Amino acid sequence: MKRFLIEREIPGAEDLTPAELAVIAEKSNAAMSSLGVPYRWITTYVAGDKLYCLHEAEDEDAIREHARRGGFPANLVTAIAGEFGPHTAANVH
Fold first, then answer.
1. Measured between alpha carbons, how far is 57 from 31 in angstroms, rounded to an integer?
2. 88 versus 37: which is more confidently predicted?
3. Cα→Cα distances 24→18, 35, 37, 90, Å
4. What is the mean pLDDT of residues 25-47?
5. What is d(CA 38, CA 55) in angstroms, rounded to the nearest whole number?
6. Is residue 93 scored above 70 in pLDDT?
7. Sign of CA dihedral 61, 62, 68, 69
8. What superfamily in CATH does domain 2-81 come from?
9. In the 8-state DSSP scheme, what is residue 39?
10. Rounded to an integer, what distance in angstroms lies between the CA atom of residue 38 and that of residue 57?
11. CA-to-CA distance for 79 and 88, rounded, in angstroms?
């Protein structure tokens, strides 16, 4: 499966309560279960008026269908081309 970064514009997202976020998570889980294709939600970050979600799916169509079934936006869907971090730094001398 491919990894996708999804940007969801939700005004006031940073003010959502844990209970409201739990409802969104329930909707997301239900949408995933109903897809009938391999799909994995890895994590979501809340920042300002946006949610940034990391999901795995076969293609962008599955990502967009998940959003449609869940009733939330997928304003930007980007396939992740690579990943790096401090652990990937080469110790070259």
1. 13
2. 37
3. 10, 17, 20, 40
4. 97
5. 11
6. no
7. positive
8. ORF SCO4226, nickel-binding ferredoxin-like monomer (3.30.70.3090)
9. E
10. 6
11. 20
Q: What residues does each domain of the chain span?
A: 2-81
What is the spatial distance between Cα 7 and Cα 17, in angstroms, rounded to a whole number? 19
| Gap between the Cα atoms of 46 and 56, Å rounded | 19
The CA distance from 90 to 65, in Å, is 39
State the residue for tokens 């990391």: 54
DSSP 53-87: EEEEESSHHHHHHHHHHHT---SEEEE------GG
pTM: 0.89
Instruction: Give the pair of three-digit tokens for residue 51.
Output: 């949610």
Tokens representing 46 are: 């809340």
